[in-house]
Specification:
The chain is an alpha/beta fold and 183 residues long. The chain is built from eight helices and six strands, in the order H-E-E-H-E-H-E-H-E-H-H-E-H-H. Strands 1-2-6-5-3-4 form a six-stranded mixed β-sheet, sandwiched between helices.
Length: 183
């Protein structure tokens, strides 16, 4: 059966039933309320960004970095936006290694995790739910726009050679609300 946007969202909602709040169409909060999430110091957020947002020919595609000044993709905009808020993003290439490594490094730096922000597909949220449930902190999830085109198995190995897109406007709007700017 070919996955569709609707079937993947439905699967996500079934697995996370009773543990999420739908903020907007492509944005969910797991393990908490949006009001509580707004109280988190954003500088202490654990943020994960997927490599599939980078262009296929980007020299940083399979690196744990981004040149935020190149303006070739939305990733640079996201990184600039986060760094302006003193938030250091974690880049995900190999899902099963990078998520625990990012968590470990964050705990080493801050002593604990207050909350998380992830840009991902529903399948990645489902596959990484053990971390989401284990740490029991609020996680704001933004779904990439065209995740139904992504081959998740290849993506977790760093072998997905498609490019996905993302609603950066939604990301900025939600962050501004978190920062107290309701406009």
């Amino acid at each position: 059966m070919k996955k569709t946007r609707e079937s993947e969202i439905k699967r996500f909602e079934e697995i996370f039933e009773g543990k999420y709040e739908k903020i907007e169409d492509k944005c969910y909060l797991v393990n908490g309320s949006f009001e509580k999430f707004k109280q988190i110091n954003t500088e202490r957020l654990l943020v994960f960004l997927p490599y599939c947002l980078k262009p296929i020919d980007c020299e940083h595609r399979l690196k744990y970095s981004c040149n935020p000044s190149c303006d070739r993709c939305v990733m640079g905009s996201i990184v600039r936006f986060l760094k302006a808020r003193n938030i250091e993003p974690n880049f995900i290439i190999y899902d099963d290694k990078d998520v625990p490594k990012g968590i470990k490094n964050h705990i080493k730096k801050f002593g604990k995790i207050d909350g998380g922000v992830c840009i991902l597909c529903p399948e990645a949220a489902i596959e990484n739910r053990r971390f989401i449930f284990e740490y029991d902190v609020p996680v704001l999830m933004f779904f990439i726009d065209d995740f139904e085109e992504c081959d998740f198995k290849k993506a977790t190995l760093g072998k997905f050679w498609g490019k996905t897109s993302f609603d950066f406007g939604l990301f900025k709007r939600i962050f501004k609300i978190l920062e107290g700017d309701e406009n």
